Amino acid sequence: MEELSRRRLDDLLLRFKRLSVAVVGDFFLDSYLDCDSRLDEASVETGRNCYQVVRTRRQAGAAGTVAANLSALGVGSISAIGFCGDDGEGWELRRALSRLAVGQESFITAADRFTPTYCKPCYVDDSSGRWRVREELERIDIKNRRPTSRTLQDHLCAALRAGIPQWQAIIVVDQVSEDGCGVVTPRLRRQLSELQRNHPQVVFLVDSRSRIDRFAGLPIKPNHHEAASALHTRPARSVRAALEQGRQLAGRSRRHVFLTLSARGMIVCDKDGPRHIAGFPITDRRIDPVGAGDSTTAALVSCLAAGASPNEAAIVANLVGSVTVQQIGTTGTASPAQIRRRWKEVADGLSST
User: Which of 65, 229, 323, 350 has the greatest count of CB atoms below 10 A from its CB?
Assistant: First the structure.
């Protein structure tokens, strides 16, 4: 923590409100269906169990989770670049983005596309006087499995070119595993590389579930599984091995790489080479890692755009991750107040040892 004083942390957090950040990629609807197992019924027609919903929760997921984290951090202006279908899920997704005050001027409704959706049934109980998630059930996914049309790609690329003069940072979220069927097509990857070359003052960061190795020259944020897949090897079992994988991913250009290692923190690579930024211990045995990677992405980019060094950005991102994993049954976010409290917890713990 000696690399990040409380005063420096406060300074970075205060700068977030002056930032304008674009989130480009696959916006999903996270549709939570909370069910009470005591109300389960057997279907008269099939005899199978019918889950009984007692509460619904709909949130912006995937790229929308990154946007939600930017909003929680207090980023002043957030723009969504992507698409949804002309369907009920699309209406719910737009409503969720509106609640986050995310700009949708370049968020396109496409009649020939589904709104990507993760439908997440859960068993909940109210033993503590409020509904809490007890168990997640089988998920239902809605995704597009046909290539994104040329016309829709034209609109997305044009939105990027038109908007980049006003943004300090661009976050790319490549969530869809079916190649060419989401927002981040090969053509859009080429457009992003061109924009980075022509606008070196803009902070870029790419998060890609299946294709992190296809963003030549762009800064990337893989987890240890994605890094291993890109390098055709096994996930690093030690920090030393992760340092080497980070070095390989950075390549000769020494592009920025932030290789996340879950509770162990992350590897940061740039022109100064790879180094390890340790994570922060969590005493609570119950954790929920869903969305933790998206929260660290938002924190990294916000800090870098606010003038932080890569090391400082990684420390804040690790703090944010340690906040969000303690939020059970939802995709967590971290506010500046929560980050300050977490910083104090860690600092007090270090001073007492």
Answer: 65
